[in-house]
Specification:
The chain is mostly beta strands. It has a domain at 20-66. It has one helix at residues 54-61; strands spanning 6-10, 13-16, 20-25, 37-41, 48-50. The longest helix is centred in the C-terminal third of the chain and has 8 residues, at 54-61. The protein is globular, with a radius of gyration of 15 Å.
Length: 79
């Protein structure tokens, strides 16, 4: 993870990747108005609410590889 990389959380919020210390997916009944994940950030007492999934945030942080979608030429139309 590179120092100083800014991670987009959604809802117009960005945080430094090296300041994020915990991610928690919200349960289905708590996912109103696009909320998906609680993000704990060093120096902020309460978690921030992100509209992105924990996997998307981790991928942007460089902690997991982003999911790859097959390109059009990789998909078979006649199988």
């Amino acid at each position: 993870m590179a120092d100083g990389v800014m991670v987009f959380l959604g809802f117009g919020k960005y945080v430094r990747a090296d300041r994020i210390y915990a991610l928690e997916p919200l349960p289905a009944d708590a996912r109103g108005s696009g909320a998906r994940t609680r993000v704990w950030v060093e120096g902020i007492a309460e978690p921030l609410i992100a509209s992105r999934t924990e996997r998307a945030i981790l991928a942007e942080m460089g902690a997991v590889p982003p999911r790859r979608r097959p390109s059009a030429q990789d998909e078979s139309l006649f199988s």
